[in-house]
Amino acid sequence: MKKTIKRTAVFLSAALLLCIHVMASQPEEEGKEITLYRINSAENALEAVAYMPAETTTSEMAEELVQLFDKKGEDANGNPILPDEVRIASWSVTEEGVLELHFTADYKEMAGTREILVRAGTVKTFMQVPDVTGVSFLIGEDPLMTQRGGEVGVMTGDSFVELFSSDRESYRYDTFTLYFTDKSGENLVPETRRVYYRSSIPKMRVALEQLAKGPIDKGHYPTIPDSTKLNTVILSDKVCYADFDRAFTDQALALEPQIPLYSVVNTLIANTEAEKVEISIAGNAEAKLGDDIELYNYYQWNEDLLNEPREEE
Amino acid sequence: MRKQKGFPFFKSLRFRIQVILIILGIVPTVIVGMAIINNYEDKAIANRSAAVKRQCGILCNLLIQENYLNDSSSQVVNSKLELLSNIYNGRILLIDRDFKIVKDTYGADTGKILLSPMVSACFRGEEASRYDKSGEYLEMALPVKSPDVKTLQGVMLITVSAEEIRSTIRELEQKALLFLAGVIVISIILGYVLARVLVEPLYRITKSIEDVTDGYQDEEISVQDYTETAQITDAFNKMLSRMRVLDESRQEFVSNVSHELKTPMTSMKVLADSLVGQQGLPEELYQDFLQDITMEIDRENKIITDLLSLVKMNKKASDINITRVSVNKLLEDIMKRLRPIAALRKIDLFLDSFRPVEADVDEVKFTLAISNLVENGIKYNVDEGWVRVTLDSDHKDFFVTVADSGLGIPEDSIDRIFERFYRVDKSHSREIGGTGLGLAITRDAIAMHHGTIKVSSKEGEGTTFAVRIPLSYIR
User: Fold this and answer.
1) How many CB atoms lie within 10 A of CB B85?
2) Start and end residues for every CATH 1.10.287.130 domain found in chain B
3) From CA A171, how far away is CA A120, in angstroms rounded?
4) Is the CATH number 3.40.920.10 carried by domain B229-314?
5) Most A CBs within 10 Å, among B68, B87, B98, to test the A interface
6) How far does chain B reach from its first CA to its final CA, in angstroms?
């Protein structure tokens, strides 16, 4: 017994010392690693390169990155975004935090496909400078124009969408509103959720898959069995047609059939442009839910089931 | 089938045939299966792409007509876009010349700038189409233009689900795998059976030969199933009969030897017994009988010597002692040695050397061979007859002939004179002397030199032996 106590004491003090050391060795302000964007050798996509900036404040880091962008030829590492003739003449930051980059006149000479990559790569790189809320391009003193004559305006990272031409899947974030039930099983309660999903999947499918996965918030209960599989879902003329497999009815949860029904309907209407929903089971549009509910109907948003709030348990 | 001890199974023909049949069953199935499936996939994708391109081409004309890229409110276009994306279970993006997404049928990225290598390629005028097998979709970038407006106004990026094609492929692959499994099972069974059936005649050959070896079967063996087995059994039978012939001649030789060795012994015994049995015989009688006994002993000695040299001749060629000699000299020595014996019956000996000949020979054996021929020439001759020896050569061989004016050899005996102990005229053999082994020794000696010997004879006129031996000895 005595030996065990002694051992534990030694171990704990060693651990404590280690923790202190680790904490002490953290510098006050450690610079964070950022991602530099460069052009790949085929000149048709961006390449991400990790980079540790020497500076940490807004103006100093901005200046550092501008210097980096200006390096051409042998000085640069990899393929610099800007072609040889184009330079950043000057820059400034507005009160609202918009970084304005003034380019030399040769910017206009760039081919359209190259110019887009330059825009995206430059904006995405500079958006990592602290306190920058957007980036706008100017050529000399004139704002950058689109081909059709409008101003390009302020850009952020979200202004751009990348689709990869390889087997890498592109993913995206979206917020979904899902309708689960509460403990009584007689009402629908909304739950919002941010989901990271493959961008090749339409939102309506993702919404229903999340519904099947079940609720995350406390006090929420699932409305459809988690083994439910969605065969197809189609949106046409503001009507959403959802076809589930047999598990939807065969393994239905012990709820009044209108709860799963309107859980699906409301979820779909909330997350798409649909105004009506038609549900079918394994291709059969004339199936029945429970004894009374015929599926061969256009179901619309059900407000009533939402408006009977019960006290929180 | 029984497995021989010490013979590994994996070296057997049966095993190899089995393996070959299994491989022959599996490999083509796999190759053909894969080829067909890949071909189907390529075809299906190509058809799908073509259909999509067609439809989208038509839609692009409508887009131009409705000026959709500048104003995306047209109901006609929107419902068509929706319909197309539903039918193809995919996503359509319309992109203008600023790379801005004018319309996204998923409603997700409208208004953003699109960075896509495929779109860039399309703007540059290149074909852009991609089939992603693992994600199960087909992606195409099509130019938005029309016969009226031939310059590129934008790009339509359409992603089409290839899921049906992929699931058909998966089904096909499953079926192919099942089929392959069936083929493997059948190949293994068939392989085993066929191998067994095909190789069975070989086992029968082995058994027949073993029966012959064990003595159960004295007849010829016959396994006629295949040409090859018939050939093997034929060759075996030939060898068998040759062995029998050899066996018989050996038995004959043994009995001949016993007989020849016994005969002098018998004579000696008779002579000795007659001396022992009587008392007080005159000295001359003793002298007489003892002389006869001596003669018989000499005879027996000669037979034994000849037999020994014959035996030595029959051993492997390792005992041959080749040297380069002047054949002329050898022949002269033989003639010199035999002249006295010839002189006894007033027989003339002649040696004609047409040219000097040097050759690789074993002196002892060669001398023995030629001596025998000359001695025969003297022995089977008439009084005051002649024996003529000639020597000639060309660039390859040298030739020795021994001709006599003697009794000659009857036609029916001439094939047999080289046999051991063969005598043409058995009745006079004692008077003529010799052992009956001389020509056998000669023939074997000449054979050891890789030479040949021929005989021609006419009864009452004489006999000629012609010997040919290569000048250089090659082992």
Assistant:
1) 22
2) 229-314
3) 18
4) no
5) B98
6) 46
Largest CA distance in chain B: 165
Q: Give the Cα separation of B89 and B138 in Å (integer).
A: 11
pLDDT tens string for chain B (475 positions)?
A: 555 566 777 888 888 998 999 999 899 999 999 999 999 999 999 999 999 988 888 898 889 988 888 888 888 899 899 888 888 888 899 999 888 999 998 888 888 888 888 888 888 888 788 888 777 888 999 999 888 888 889 999 998 888 888 888 999 999 999 999 999 999 899 999 998 999 899 999 998 888 888 876 677 888 888 899 999 999 999 988 888 888 887 887 788 788 878 888 888 888 888 888 777 888 888 888 888 888 888 888 888 888 887 777 776 555 678 889 999 999 998 898 888 888 888 899 999 999 999 999 988 889 989 999 998 898 888 888 999 999 999 999 999 999 999 888 888 888 888 887 777 776 666 666 667 788 888 998 898 899 999 999 988 889 999 999 999 988 7
In a shared domain, residues A108 and A223? no
Interface test with B, best of A44, A152, A243 (most B CBs within 10 A): A44
Q: How far is B7 from chain A (nearest CA, A)?
A: 56
Q: Which domain holds residue A112?
A: 34-159
Instruction: Work out the minimum CA distance from A134 to partner chain B, whole angstroms.
Output: 15
Report the residue of chain A nearest B125, measured CA to CA: A113
CB atoms within 10 A of CB B327: 21
> The whole model's pTM is what?
0.59
CATH of B319-470, one of 1.10.3720.10, 3.30.300.30, 3.10.450.50, 3.30.565.10: 3.30.565.10
Q: Is residue A14 part of a domain?
A: no
Q: Do A218 and A95 share a domain, yes or no?
A: no
Considering Cα of A299, then A302, then A304, then A308, what sign does the dihedral take?
positive
CA angle B61, B66, B67 (to 5 degrees): 95
Cβ neighbour number for residue A282 with a 10 Å cutoff: 14
| A172/B contact by beta carbon, under 8 A | yes
CA distance A312 to chain B (A): 35
Q: Which of A116, A200, A234 sits opposite B99 (nearest CB)?
A: A116
Could you give the ipTM of this predicted complex? 0.70
